């Protein structure tokens, strides 16, 4: 048994056969388990929503930008750069640009997720102890 648990109440067989006694003895544990179950489900849904938001942000992390490059085409070679009429051309190119604001939002999202998961794990630890206590009483 866990060292932190209180001593057993020493239930008799007669006590266990009495529904009123059992409900009285375990009512607070049943209530706690019910509350924790609801909180866990809500927390799990929050984590799922946070994950969905992360995926939405991920799709926006890079966006396409167009820019015009001016290119000067010169005639000649490496030994002679005499060119009477160099040719200039404008070329439109597309590039992907990293959005630092979206990256910051993604980092905040991961932090929120870590905090939510930590809350769930803490709650599970407390619930495990309460469940062990209820089992110990029985």
Automatic annotation (TrEMBL):
Superkingdom of source: Eukaryota
Protein name as it appears in the record: Uncharacterized protein
């Amino acid at each position: 048994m866990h060292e932190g648990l209180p001593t057993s109440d020493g239930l008799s067989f007669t006590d266990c056969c009495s529904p009123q006694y059992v409900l009285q003895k375990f009512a607070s544990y049943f209530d706690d388990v019910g509350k924790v179950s609801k909180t866990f489900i809500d927390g799990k849904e929050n984590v799922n929503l946070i994950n969905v938001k992360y995926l939405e942000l991920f799709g926006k992390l890079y966006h396409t930008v167009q820019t015009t490059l001016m290119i000067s085409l010169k005639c000649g070679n490496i030994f002679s750069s005499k060119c009477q009429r160099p040719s200039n051309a404008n070329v439109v190119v597309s590039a992907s640009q990293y959005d630092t604001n979206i990256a910051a939002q993604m980092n905040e999202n991961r932090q929120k997720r870590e905090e939510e998961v930590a809350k769930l794990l803490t709650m599970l630890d407390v619930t495990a102890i309460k469940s062990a206590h209820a089992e110990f009483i029985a």
